[in-house]
Write the structure tokens for this entry.
Amino acid sequence: MKKLYSYNFITRILFLLLTPTLFRALNFAFIWHSIYWGTITLVVIIWSVAILISPLFGRLGCGWICFMGTIQDITSQRSLFQIKWKKPIIWTRILNICAFFTTAFIFFFIRLDSGTISGIKFEPWFLNMDFNIHYKHIWLYDTLGAVLLGLLLERRWACRNLCFMGALCASGASISRLIPVVDSEKCNLCGKCETDCLVRIPIRDYVTHNNGLVTNSECLICGKCIESCKPKALKLKFIWNRNKYIQKHCFPQPIGTTLQS
Ligand code: SF4
Ligand code: SF4
Ligand code: SF4
């Protein structure tokens, strides 16, 4: 478990390097094109699985495969702003979800009506995998966008406040069973985990108000906090029933309401 972040880091760098080859399979923006063409493609399958497993395993898609997130993590080491953790802006994400799917489905129905397409087909490799000049440009713009967002804003700001896919995964992750858990008896509230957290989750608040269960839907299950914690107070645990766990592990801190975001 201590090595979780090392695996996470290697996996994400690998996906980042594979991005030019697997661009159309990994970049969730191509879901728009898939709906437009009425086709269930590989990118639709990959991100549907990421959303479907989020109530059990949290945001593995955001934390382990998304190249946009990885680029932001790298560049935000030098970001101009270090804003204190704030709850994500929900309405911008909802607006983006509506805009993305409404426009995609409008085009789908227009094409269906005009007879350009005949319905929904299953064709995982429909989006051509060759890296032609058109896709090179999209890849370049996406990469530059992620670099700029990382440099100009707080770490993963765009993930928390703009990305529609992040919002869909986060809604499932709000009831995730896989959770970082702090052993309140070992924790000395030093705050190192918070400083190093890829999304800067206020982990100590969960120690003092939630019996150490870091039930935050922005968590990427990356393991960075576990690596940072010198007293080894943090572990990633699979907890089926949060309330039962809290009752069983009732630590002597003031117990507040369950923290969520
Ligand atoms: S929130 Fe969006 S951009 Fe950020 S890691 Fe998740 S899918 Fe990628
Ligand atoms: S790094 Fe460990 S000891 Fe320090 S606040 Fe975080 S969980 Fe507690
Ligand atoms: S709380 Fe820990 S596992 Fe979750 S995003 Fe932060 S560093 Fe990663």
Remarks:
- The beta strands are 39-40, 121-122, 178-182, 234-238.
- The longest strand covers residues 178-182.
